[in-house]
DNA sequence: AGCACTGTTTACAT
DNA sequence: TATGTAAACAGTGC
C-alpha cells in the first residue's frame, strides 16, 4: 500500500494505536530488511524506547523514539497490524514489536522488499540515506511551478518516469502518476523538457489535488487480498485511467490504453492525453 | 505449465 | 552525468 496517501493513512492509524507505548522487545525473522546497522544492534537500541509519535517523509514512515528515528519503507506490500497478546501469527510477518502493555505491532511483507533504517536523533535526517536524495514534499511550499520548471530543464526522460523518480518531488507512485497525468492531459511519454508552462502548472496542481483527495479517502485499495486488516481506502473509486485498460474514458469514451513506460504498466487515454 | 505482471528503490550497465 | 535495466522476492493471472 505504499504511495504517499497510503503511508499517510498508516501514519495516522499508528499514531492512534502506538503513541506512548514502550518497546519491550523486537523480534526479527528476516534480517536483510535492516539497513545500515547490524540486526542485533538494531534490536538492542530500540529496546526500552518509547514511541513518541509518527511522521511521514515521502513514502517513508518515521517512528520518533526517545533517542532514535526509525525509518520504515513499505515498498510494494509492507503492512502493519496492531494485535493483542494472543493473536495467532499471520504468514509473512517478518518483524514484531512487543510493547510493555503486551500488545504487539506486526510488520508483514509478502515480497520482503520493505526496509528499516535507524538513526540517532542527533543526526540531520535530511542528510542521511535514504533521505539525502529525496525531493520536496508535494504539500510543501517548495513544490511550485517554477521549481518544477527548473527541474524539468534538459531532462530527456518521459514525464512519467520523472514523476516516479523521488528526487524532484516525493510521494507519487505508479497509480497516482497515471491519475495526475490524465487530469493534466499530458501523455505519459512526453519528454519532460517539452512540457509547456500550462502543462507544468497542471501537473503541479493535480499532483497536490489527487494526493490530497486520496488522503481524504484513506488511500487506494486494489488487489483486494491485501486489505484484510490494514488500510482499506476508497480512492480506487476515483481512478480515471489506472487499471482501466479496455474500459472507456469517462470524459470522451475512448478506450483506455495500457503501455510500458520505464518498465512500469501505464494507463492513459490517447484522446485526452495526445502525444505531441 | 510457464511466463509476465505487480502500489518500489537501488546498484550497476551503457 | 544521465538514463536505462536488472535485481531483491513471492504471489497472481493469463
Overview of the structural elements:
The protein has helices at residues 4-18, 39-46, 145-152, 159-164, 174-183, 197-216; strands spanning 23-28, 34-35, 53-57, 60-64, 68-73, 79-83, 93-99, 104-108, 115-120, 257-261, 264-268. The protein is of the alpha+beta class and 276 residues long. It folds into two domains: 4-132, Alpha-Beta Barrel (N-terminal domain of MutM-like DNA repair proteins); 145-268, Helicase, Ruva Protein, domain 3 (Orthogonal Bundle). A hairpin with a 2-residue loop joins strand 10 and strand 11 (264-268). Helix 1 packs parallel to helix 6 (197-216) and helix 5 packs across helix 6 (197-216). The radius of gyration is 20 Å and the shape is globular. The model is unreliable at 224-228 (pLDDT under 50). The structure holds a DNA duplex (14 and 14 nucleotides).
